[in-house]
Amino acid sequence: MDDKPTAKDNARNGEATAEKQREIQREQDRKEPQESGGAKDDGGVQTGARKYPDSYPSQHLDKPGQEADMDLKPLFEAPDYRGSGKLTGMKALITGGDSGIGRAVAVLYAREGADVAIVYLASHDDAQETKRCVEKEGRECLLIAGDLKDPQFCKDAVEKTVQAFGGLDILVNNAAFQEHAHSLEDITDERMEETFTTNIFGYMRMARAALPHLKKGSCIINTGSVTGMRGSKNLLDYSATKGAIHAFTMSLASSLIDKGIRVNAVAPGPVWTPLNPADQSSREIVEFGKSTDFKRAAQPEELSPAYVFLASPVCSSYITGIVLPITGSVG
Fold first, then answer.
1. What is the predicted pLDDT for the residue at 39?
2. CA nearest to 77, candidates 55, 49, 54, 115
3. Which residue in 203, 238, 307, 318 is the catalytic one?
4. 3-state SS, residue 145
5. 144 pairs with which residues across the strands?
6. Options 3.30.1540.10, 3.40.50.720, 1.10.8.60, 3.40.50.300; CATH of 46-73+89-179+189-326
7. Helices (H) and strands (E) in the chain, counts
8. How far is CA 15 from CA 150, 194, 327, in A?
9. pTM here?
């Protein structure tokens, strides 16, 4: 008898974890100060192909946060980005690919010629929209719902990707759980375990499951964070996991270089994705990203070309073990 969990089992586990994360969020929300705040209209720096938002609506989302529910939708389609076959014939798996940075990366990977599997927790509407966008680029998209805290699910997700596409060339570890706290004393063991098991254990388990299928020329890209480089007084556990991801990236790169498998990370600063209005209060989110030198948060499409660069053998064949900071600030 096969005791492996079914797709329905994995989806139920994802829903249960999403509800656990919402309870962690509600517990923190009850501790929030009630002072009022307002956005400063300093005007963000614009250097891109189109103008990006530099002010943000007062909104607080329930975890895990759906892009479909955001009052100001993130920009992810990169209409001025022209594909040139950098990933033709390649197969990619992206965790947390239903929204935010993961969705933007999925779209550009498809535009560059890759088929894409999306692993996500429970935001089914967002996942379907990402699938639609990938297929609009003329590539296949596989949706896999479940909880990365489950080691068996990580193995199943990789196996389903390989079965569907006939192989795996690119693993993007991108899924994350984040909940702020004003004191270490507010971080319960349950919350700590949720953050670490999702953010760093999930990355290591996905990489471990993918390795038997990766070959010379394949790559792993991890999403780190500026908080893993500088720390954050209100994101103690999250920052610690991001620092661990950076160290894991460099260590795994050294471990796999003789096999011709590259491992790199991107360390974003503030990016307008569902993760942030699902963490910060409606008073705080209006100031999101304004402390950067750009005086605004990035949009996901401003990050996704870096993931193409690090994935493409014609762009980065001599690069491994780096943590690429895209923080919106000098240095």
1. 43
2. 49
3. 238
4. strand
5. 119
6. 3.40.50.720
7. 10, 7
8. 13, 14, 32
9. 0.88
Q: Are 244 and 229 in contact (CB under 8 A)?
A: no
Q: How many Å apart are CA 279 and CA 21, to the nearest integer?
A: 11
Which residue reads 């600030």 in tokens?
Answer: 329
The CA angle 15-272-124, to the nearest 5 degrees, is 25
- For 255-274, write each residue's pLDDT tens digit: 999 999 999 999 999 999 98
Do residues 280 and 179 make contact, with C-beta atoms less than 8 angstroms apart? no
Mean pLDDT score of the chain, rounded to an integer?
A: 92
Between CA 248 and CA 159 the distance in angstroms is: 23
Closest CA to 122 of 136, 102, 143: 143
Q: Known catalytic residue: 81?
A: no
- Look up residue 209 and give its amino acid: A
Q: Where are the domains of the chain?
A: 46-73+89-179+189-326
Q: Which two tokens stand for residue 18?
A: 């999403």
**Per-residue pLDDT at 67:** 81
**Token pair 């994360």 in the structure block, residue:** 21
Over residues 92-105, the pLDDT tens digits come to 999 999 999 999 99
Q: Tokens 């599997």 map to which residue?
A: 117
- Quick check: 194 pLDDT over 80? yes
Q: What is the DSSP string of 268-300?
A: E-SB-STTTTTTS-TTTGGGTTTTSTTSSPBPG
- Please tell me the distance from the alpha carbon of residue 68 to that of residue 71, in angstroms, as a whole number: 8
List all residues 6 or more positions away from 200 whose beta carbon is below 8 Å from its beta carbon: 241, 244, 245, 248
